[in-house]
Predict the 3D structure of the following.
Amino acid sequence: MHGDIENILMTEAEIDECIRRLAAQITADYRDKSLTAVVILRGSLVFAADLIRKIELPMTVDFIQASSYGAGTISSGTLNITHGLEDDPTGKDLLLIEDIIDSGNTLLHLREYLKGSGAASVKVCTLLSKPERRSVDIEADYTGKIIPNEFVVGYGLDYDQKYRNLPYIGILKRDIYE
Ligand code: IMP
Ligand code: MG
C-alpha cells in the first residue's frame, strides 16, 4: 500500500465486482437505445475504461471536462466546461460517467447542460457517492458504492493530480491535505 494511504476503501477485486454489477444493469436498461457514454475527465478515465468493456451493447464514447477542484478539496460551486462533446448528442441516450459525487454541483450543472443539448435522455452512473456531503439535490441513476465523508484517491481519483494510477481506492492520510 502507498505510504500516503490510511486505509484501502475498495480493493481491485471489489472494484471489479462492483463494475460487473453496474455494467449488467446498464446492458439490460439500454438494450433498445442509442447509448453514448460521456466520460467526465479526468477522474472517470479509469472507471470508464473498465465499465465500457463490460457493457455488451453497441455504443459510442465521448468526453466532457469541467473545471475541477485544483489543489483544494472543496468545490467552488461554479462550473466551467473546458472541453465539450465532440459528437452531436441529438437523439442519443447519454450516460454520464462520473468518478464520485460529493457536493453534487458538478453533476447537476453538467446534467442540465446536456439536457439542453437535444439528447433523447441523460442519465448518470457514478462509481462512488458521498451523500453526507451533498449540497444540491441530485442522485445518480447507477451508483457503485456509497462511502463515508473521507477524501479518497486512486483508480482515477486524484489529490493535486497525484495518485490517479493506484489500482485500488484508498483513504488519503489527513496530514497530506490538512
Ligand atoms: P462535486 O461537484 O462537489 O460533487 O465534486 C465532484 C468532483 O470533485 C468529482 O468529480 C471529483 O473530481 C472531485 N472529488 C470529490 N470528492 C473527492 C474525493 O474524495 N477524492 C478525489 N476527488 C474528489
Ligand atoms: Mg471529477
